Amino acid sequence: MPIYTFSSSIHHENIVETVDLIRDEHGRWCVVMEYCAGGDLFHKTMSVGFSCDEEIHCLFRQLLNGVGFIHSIGVAHRDLKPENIILDGTGRILKITDFGTSAVFRTQWEKEAHKLHGVYGSAPYIAPEEWDEQHEYIPTKVDVWACGVIFFAMLSKSLLWTVAKPSDEHYAAYLKKRETGFTQFLRYPPGPCKVLHSCLDPDPVRRPEIAQLIEGDWVSRIEFCIGAASTGKPTRPVQHTHLMQSSKH
């Protein structure tokens, strides 16, 4: 019930719409959500693929738009991963779903955000500060970290590490090489490279907020698709293309 009440109050193009709450024949509560025929971002990344880098950038910008919106109303998702990001039937409009581990960090009556504690999400996408049980963390910053991991996964079809702990050899290597130039980031153009470097800053104080990312030189210039509320189809012409699932069949 609380999840339905919360998710049904969020209305944004890049958030899956919650339509209704019904009871099935077994008395179980079922949340009815907007149908998105494009599948999830994990399948898109690993099986369908992308037509060009601009398609990846478009979807990443839409991800930032959606996350930025929930942050603006005082909510952190805390389980951002490709499996919780889906596409509409056109394959152009990205939507965030599954708010089961989300949390309110600022109510409408509060001016200051409060920190949270506890480990939530899927290990490869969890920010390093969440693993520190002795300290609270800034909830918006853990979502930023997850966006960075997702962006790298879209670009490379791989994950950087299993878990962001020094005990993970890949994460330990990242910490060692990050300040002198991390090779896996340097293979990309300056814009994406800088975004990856800032989103995946192990220090949450230095890590930017979503709004700061969107206002940045490169992200602010990304061409992204906008869908009509009634049809989901793009409402403005764009130069890039989107690879549809059917084109792989």
Automatic annotation (TrEMBL):
Its EC number is 2.7.11.1. It catalyses: L-seryl-[protein] + ATP = O-phospho-L-seryl-[protein] + ADP + H(+); L-threonyl-[protein] + ATP = O-phospho-L-threonyl-[protein] + ADP + H(+). It is an enzyme of class 2 (transferase). The keyword Metal-binding does not apply. Keywords: ATP-binding, Kinase, Nucleotide-binding, Serine/threonine-protein kinase, Transferase. The keyword Nucleotide-binding applies. Residues 1-219 form the Protein kinase domain. It holds the Pfam family Pkinase. SMART domains: S_TKc. Transmembrane segments: none annotated. PANTHER family: PROTEIN KINASE DOMAIN-CONTAINING PROTEIN, SERINE/THREONINE KINASE. This is non-specific serine/threonine protein kinase. The lineage of its organism: Eukaryota, Fungi, Fungi incertae sedis, Chytridiomycota, Chytridiomycota incertae sedis.
